[in-house]
C-alpha cells in the first residue's frame, strides 16, 4: 500500500472493518473497544435515524457489509430486522460470532447470519453462502468505507466496491453509507472530538495529520489517545493510529451516483439531520435508493 511508505496505516493489532487485517496481535484492538464504549448501546439519534429510514422504505432484509464486532448488526436484530453481516476481517468477526453465541437462546439471534466476505468480490461471496440473495438495504457505516485506500491513484477499487454494493440490492433497495467530514479536516487540520455513533465515557484526544502527495490529499491519519482516568479504569495512556482515504463530499457524491448509473435517488444527511441544518458536521450520511 503506497501510504505505508510514509505512514504506518494503523497501529499494531488494530483490525479494520471491511478490509483485510494488516496486524493481528489484538493488543490495540482492546484499546479500540475502550474508545467505542459499551458495545450494547448506540446513540439514540443514530438508532432512530437508521431504523426510521429502513422502516419508511419497508426494508426487512439488511446486509451489513462492515459489521466489525457486530454492534450495528445487533442493534438492527434487536429492532426486528433480518440481518446478514459480513466482514473481511476474521479478527473482527470473532467478536460478532461470540456475541451471537452468547444470545443463542434468543431466536432472532439464532437466525442472524455472519460470514466472511470482501467488498471487492461481494456478489460472488454472497452467492457462495446465500445463492440468489438480494437485499432490501445495505449499510456501510461508522466511516468504514474510508479504510479502503487508493492504491492505484484513480480510485478504481473504491468505485468497483460501490458498484458491488449496488449489485446486491433489490430494485428499490437502499444503500446507506457514510464518511467523515474530510473537507473540514483537510481545510482545518483537525477532527471533531465527539462521535455520533459511540458512547465512550473515556476522554479521547484525536490528532489529525493530512498527507498531501503532489498537491493532492492522499490520506488522513488519526492518532487516538485515551487518557488515564481518575477512577483508575484506565491506568495509563493508550494510543493507536488509523488511516483513511479523505473522501471529499462532492467527489464521493459523484462516485455514488455513477455506481448506480445516475438512476438512484440520492439524499445526503449531516450528523443524522437534514444537510442544511448542520454548518460543519462530523459525518455525512448518504442514502441511495436503487431504481
Strand fraction equals 25-35%
Order of helices and strands: HHEHEHHEHEHEHEEEHEEE
Round the mean pLDDT to the nearest integer and report it: 85
Query: Structural class of the secondary elements?
Result: alpha/beta
The largest sheet, given as strand count, sense and whether it forms a barrel, is: 8 strands, mixed
End-to-end gap = 35 Å
Helix content: 25-40%
The side-by-side strand order for the widest beta sheet comes to 3-2-1-4-5-11-9-10
Radius of gyration: 18 Å
Number of strands: 11
Shape: globular
- pLDDT < 50 runs, ≥5 residues: 1-6, 11-15, 18-28
Q: Give the number of helices.
A: 9
Give your account of this protein's structure.
This protein is an alpha/beta fold and 291 residues long. Helices cover 30% and strands 26% of the residues. It contains nine helices and eleven strands. It has helices spanning 27-36, 44-56, 71-78, 90-102, 107-110, 122-129, 156-167, 182-188, 249-259; strands spanning 61-64, 82-87, 113-116, 135-140, 169-180, 204-213, 216-226, 238-244, 265-270, 273-274, 283-289. The strands form two sheets. The chain has an eight-stranded mixed β-sheet with strand order 3-2-1-4-5-11-9-10, with helices on both faces. α3 links the parallel β1 (61-64) and β2. α7 packs across α9. The longest helix is centred in the first third of the chain and has 13 residues, at 44-56. It is globular and about 45 Å long. The two termini are 35 Å apart. Residues 1-6, 11-15 and 18-28 have low confidence and may be disordered.
